[in-house]
Every structure is written in structure tokens, then in C-alpha cells.
Amino acid sequence: MAYSKAWLNYRVVDHIRFPFDTLYADTGNEQIRIAAQELQKAAKELAKAKLNCISDLAEIKRALGKSDDVGAAPKGACRGAVYMEINPDRLSLADEEGYLIRRQACGLVICGGGEGGLLYGTFALIRIMQTDPQLLSKICSGKQTVEKSPANPLRMLNHWDNTDGSIERGYAGKSFFFADHELVIDERTRDYARLLASVGINATVINNVNVRGAATELITARYLPQLAKLAKLFYTYRIKLYLSLNFAAPIELGGLATCDPLEQDVQDFWKKKMDEVYAAVPELGGFLVKADSEGRPGPFTYGRDHAQGANMLAEAIAPHGGNIIWRCFVYNCRQDWRDRKTDRARAGYDNFMPLDGQFADNVILQIKNGPMDFQVREPVSPLFSGLKETNMMLEVQAAQEYTGQQKHLCYLVPMWKEVLGFRTYAEKGATDGADTVADIVSGRLYGQRNCGMAAVANTGDDENWTGHDMAAANFYGFGRLAFDTELTAEEIAKEWVRATYGCDREVLECMLPMLLSSWEIYEKYTSPLGIGWMVNPSHHYGPNVDGYEYDRWGTYHYSDCHGMGVDRTMAGTGYVAQYNEPNRGMYENIESCPEELLLFFHHVPYTHMLKTGKTLIQHIYDSHFEGAMQAQNMLLNFDSLKHRLPPEVFERIHTRLKMQADHAKEWRDRINTYYYRMSGIADEKGRTIY
Ligand code: GCW
Prior knowledge:
This protein is an alpha/beta fold. It has helices at residues 30-47, 57-65, 115-131, 133-140, 187-199, 224-236, 249-252, 264-280, 306-317, 347-352, 383-386, 413-421, 437-441, 472-483, 489-501, 505-525, 583-588, 598-601, 616-638, 647-679, and strands at 22-24, 52-54, 81-86, 99-104, 107-112, 146-148, 154-158, 178-179, 182-183, 203-205, 240-244, 286-289, 323-327, 363-368, 392-397, 452-456, 563-564, 604-605. The protein is globular, with a radius of gyration of 26 Å.
């Protein structure tokens, strides 16, 4: 299927000056060769500059030998050269993945701390060519240097692709990794790897965490040769291939009667299995495991805990240098809705906190950003505040399962920024302000090296990769943010628009506010104030206030004729106790609880006065009317781009925005009507409620 190049779709940028005609690069090294090819391609397509590549190691060494010759080129020097070099000594921070771009007398030098750094430095230069001609000319003239190292060691995508080609929670077509239970490796696979490398993603899990049926066999001889090929291809772009595995494989593949992690037979099965897999696929990064969660097998069946389960796999994989990434999405999904004491939000912490310090060094706990499940607004998972001696990874969802399913525009980087910036008040080691989630998952706070960020991917085989063209900003944004958590949501959005659509001011002026307001707009017309859910069961699209109210999933709003919300204070489920002070007190007290999370933490009467001076019920009405109107306005504003975008791109986005505007009205009317009928309180402004 034909597909777009997304943000690597280079178009000539008229006003850029890229005054180079020779590239010195040691293309005998495969990674350097790839970086060189990328730069040549970009220079040609973006700046019409032909870069001749000279692979003359002696010349590179000679020219770069004098490390102090920074600055503008002296007269007569070879001004038209770009040099690629791998040399950790030149970087202020020794980091294999760090890079430095600077002008030296001999020419422009891209220096990587290692192969990864060179690749990221090359893509950084390309990005600057695409999006920031002024910075480019400063770099070329020696007025500015750029030096970066990734903030997070692991920057990973999780694909929920099934081997039959379907994608769980996929909103952009079918899988491009699997078809008919076979692996697919083609040109698109390479372009996928280029997209990842260009934003700094260095690991990817290609199959669904719900490993069922044929997928269990991915770790058998039938698939290993293809996996080896894929892992090799990915690794040329410095991406480690990971797989999801079935904890019950000893039973399903090994014919054992048990998968008890303390059984010798089970341990032997995994040791042998890991040896076999790594003999065939030496580049494999490791495995991602969903155990004892939503029906998946796990150690609980045998009365073992999650440290015992994870460590058993970790020990088997350790000789090969692999990691076990173990998800903390463990909760009781067979709850009785009548039981108001059991609180799903508590489950992650209750299950994993007692195990802090017990996990092996090559185990990383992967924790969803919130305690529930990727709702439009949730507090930050308290596990980040609690665990101190455990490797942690933050899991976010680029796939918009609960945020409009890539039919609605919802740019999620602002949400992820809030999560990263959340102060945990974890006691150990923190100097003031250095205890945010970003400090923890990057390893800065506790000195860990096995940690980082993961996103559930939002890609599929649709021609634009992400269904909604503008959902690609989440794909792009995740990578950029995981590499550099200091970037703002606005900087990332700007980069994405320019890289994708060129430096057209009108496109930027229209799309930037759309992206930046989209999360809030979506929240307003769906389920604001932290209440979440209210979607249709199973597929999770569209309004259904009671869709999950009398179900077993632990996701309730408890609306009655007086009020709504979940009491998670000490008088309620006690969930607030999982936070450190002062967060605990802030959430406990209805006056200090951030209003956007009011109904997450409190059961509140409709007549409760908010800080805006509005009652809760009036806020619900206003928010839904406003959100739906803003969705409609986005559609109208977007019309101004009719002649500024390729027609098919305009049409695709327009169609989705129209769908969103219509659907926002449905949300508005369903929610408002429900709460009018429930509360009997009319809208002060007398608008139509049915
Ligand atoms: O949000 C839920 C999804 C499931 C998913 C699960 C998880 C892959 O509805 O489809 O399963 O989360 O994160 O494991």
C-alpha cells in the first residue's frame, strides 16, 4: 500500500542556505553509512544541495584532529565540507547516544558519542534544516553549536499488533508488522525505523501484550529467522526489537503442567528458550510482559508474587543482556459494582509497593501514567511517588483509545508534559524540585540506568500512518519528548507542523492553536473534572454515561439525584494515602483539590460551588456547550487551509474534523440531558437540553 513519509517528507525550503558539497564519512561503518545516506537525501530534497561522500578516514582524522579549531572557516579552507565523526571525548557528557553539531575551521562537524549519537545528530541537523533556517545559518556560520544527550535511557513504542494483522485499539488500519500470522519486512519497515530514529526512539515492541494463540509461537523456530532479520534492520537504526511474551508459554509451548516461576522445570524451560532465541536473534532487547492482568496468566495462579515471576524471566535472560519489562496494570477486573470500598485506582500501588527493592536489575516496571487507564484526565500514578529501589518506566498511550480514537483531534503532548512535571515529593535524594516523574523515569533521582518512557503506538498501515493526519503529532511528539523532556508541547507541535507541511506561516498559524487546545476541548465535551469513562463498552468510542456503571471493571461515576464522583479520600476508599505529603493533603481536601480532578477524588453535590463561582451542574452544562462549540470552530477555522495543503490531506483532515464536530454535539446532548434528568436542575442559561 502506498504511504506518506510523514515528517520525513522533505520539501524544498526556499530560504535555506546549506553551503556544503562534500561529506566526509567513514561509510565502512554501517551506521555511519546510514547517517550519511540520510543527510545526502535530506540535503538534496530540502536544499537542492548535492553532497559528494568521501569515505577517507585519514582525511577525516587529519581535518578533525585539532579539536580546538572551532569557529568560522579561515580563508582558503575547505568550507564546503561536512564531517561525520564518532568521538565521545568531544562531548561534554560521555554518552553513546549524545551528539554535538558545530562549525569548525574545516567545515561542519556532526559528532556522535557513539553510533546512536551520530544518527540522532544527523537527524537533528535535518530537523533544523526543515524547521529552523535561522538556527541552521547560525550553526553553519559558527555562531551556535548544538549539543544534546537523551533524557531517558529507554524510549520505546509498544505496538498492540496481533499476528493475524489486526491491532488491539488500532485506529489507523491494520498492522504493517504482521499479516496472516507471518512477519512482514519490506520498504515500509525501513521507513518505520527511519521515523523512529529521526525522533530518537530506540526500542520497539511489535506484538500485543495480550499474547494469545499464534502469537505465543513468536519465540519458536518458525519465526526466529524473520525476527533476526527484523532485529538486524532495526538495529541499523539503533532500535532494539522487543517482544511481548506469554507467561504461560511453558504450558502452551513446553508441554509442562505449570508455569509456576519457582518450579525448576519452568525455570529450565525459560533458560533454554532464551538461549535458543538469543542464538538466533542476538540483537533482541528483551520482553514485555502483561501478567495477571485482564485474564492473562501470571504468578498469582501459583500463589507467587510479581517479583518472583519477573525475576525468574530476568534470570533466564540476564546472560544475554536482555531486559524484562513488567507491566503494573494489575487490578481486579471482576469487581462487584455494589462494592464501593474496592477501588481499582489503588490496585497498582497495593500490588507493587510491597515489592520495592525485590526486582532484579534487568527488570523494569512499566507504569501507566494514571492509576486507571489512559482517561482524558487522571492524577499521576502514585507508584512513581512510592517505589524507590525499582527501575521504572512511564507508559503513556499515543493510540487515542479514550481520547477520540484518532477520529477526534487530541494532541497529547501537553498531558504527558504535565505527568512528567508532577512533583512526587519522594523523600530520598531529592533536592528541591528534582523529584518529578521526569527525574524518576530518566534515572536522575535514583541513579538508575534501566528506565525511561514507553508509548502505546498509534500507527497502522493507513497511508498517513496514523488515521488522522494530525495524530502523527502524537507519534512524533512522543519520541521528541522522550528524548528531550525539557521541550515544550508548543515547540514540539511547531516542529511537527513545519517538518510535515513545510515552513508555511498560515499552516502553522492555523494548526498550532488547534493542536494546543485540542486536549482541553476534547475533555470539555466528554467527561471533565477527572470523572472519565462514560464510553460504550468494549470499543470505547462514543458517549454512554452508564456504559460501565454496572459492570465489573471498577470504573464508576456513582451519579445519583444529589451528586456524582468517587470518594477517594480517607473517609472513602483511602486512595489519597498512596501519595506523599503535600499531595495527599491537597487531594484529600475538596478546597485544595485541583478542580480538573475534583470528581476523581470526591463525591460532590451538584450544587457545590466551584472556584469559578459556578455550581458543579452549571459547570457540566457550560463545559459541554463550550467544548462542542470549540470543536465546531476548529472545523470552520481549518477551512482556511483549503488551498495550502495537498488536496487529499485537506480532505482527510476536514472529514475527521467534521466527524468530531458532529460527534461532540452528541456527547454534549447526551451528557447534559443525563445530568439534567438526574439532578432536576435547569441550565441557568436556558439552552436546549433534551
Ligand atoms: O486500556 C486497556 C485496553 C486493552 C489493553 C489494556 C492494557 C492490551 O482496553 O485493550 O490490552 O488496557 O493496557 O493491557
